[in-house]
Amino acid sequence: MPNSTRVNSTDAKVLLALAEHPRATVVALAGQAGLSRNTVQARLSALDRSGVVRSFEHCVDPAALGCPLTAFITTQVVQRRLDEVAAALAAVPEVLQAHGLSGESDLLIQVAATDADDLYRIAGRILGIGGVEKTSTALVMRQLVGYRVGPLLRRAAEAST
């Protein structure tokens, strides 16, 4: 569910500093953002409480865990079983993300696999979930733009300047 909290330019400066230096102290973030320590601490606490800042989990490359193969699996499901399917997907360790879609497919599932045989097994496991009607798998050949929010944060931080 989308978060309804709107980030202002001050929040964006704090988040940009945090994105660029995730291990920095509040004092270091304050210096980088050009704000007081108390302001940064208060903003981070409020952003955390509101759900704007989700997880502090570091991005770990699945290849380092023995899963160098990434694929996207589009899935059609029985609509009334969507919550059940989502819960089952959450139990599959190789599922990195699952997004609900509009259009022909209902879900876009990102998975990591050790090799083609492992991907075949994972796709079969997903297809075997009750409520899943059809899947289609696309292998990622190369990542061209990784997940990022920096450009959006820079734009928001500059909005008032």
Describe the protein's architecture and organization.
- The structure is a single chain.
- The chain is an alpha+beta fold.
Outline:
By secondary structure, the protein is an alpha+beta fold.
Query: Main β-sheet, in a few words?
Result: 4 strands, antiparallel
State the share of residues found in helices, binned by percent. Answer: 25-40%
Record field, number of beta strands? 4
Class from secondary-structure proportions: alpha+beta
Q: Measured on Cα atoms, how large is the radius of gyration?
A: 19 Å
The first-to-last residue Cα distance is: 31 Å
Low-confidence stretches: none
Q: Compute the number of helices.
A: 6
| Tertiary shape | elongated
Q: Layout of helices and strands, plus pairs?
A:
Elements: H1 9-20, H2 26-33, H3 37-50, E1 69-77, H4 82-90, E2 95-100, E3 107-113, H5 116-127, E4 132-139, H6 150-157
Antiparallel strand pairs: 1-3, 1-4, 2-3
Helix pairs in contact: 1-2, 1-3, 1-6, 2-3
Please describe the structure with a list of short key phrases separated by commas or semicolons.
161 residues, alpha+beta, 4-stranded antiparallel sheet, 6 helices, 4 strands, 39% helix, elongated
